[in-house]
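Good morning N.,

You mentioned wanting to compare the apo and holo forms, so I went ahead and generated the holo version with zinc ion. This is what I fed in:
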Amino acid sequence: MMMMKDGVSDMTYKTTADIDTDIEKLKIKISKLETKKKQLEGMTLSQKVAEILHDKYCYHDHTESCSWLYESWEFPGATRNRYLIKANILISTILDSSITKESKYISDEDLLKFIKQILVD
Ligand SMILES: [Zn+2]
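and this is what came out, ligand included:
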């Protein structure tokens, strides 16, 4: 059976059991998305930017030399705090720069999109 990109099987030869399997997979996916959404809603802009910076620039082994995964935003340690400082510097630099100075107000969401564009896309 051919699997589609979302992990759900091709609709051509579906049985009800196939559909039940697909429904279960999608429920798991929805649950993961809801968890991620809740997590993001509880994060500050600086924390979101710190996560982008860590994803992009940390090349350490995450089982030994980087404690990112052992820390959390609820209990940040030296690693997360270091990236938080970098995030705050980046945010301040962008807000003070001529790139965004033209617009009187830039929302956190737009600022995050901008940072993703320059760092990730
Ligand atoms: Zn790391």
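The chain has two domains: 1-42, 44-119.

Happy to go through it together on a call whenever suits you.

Best,
F.
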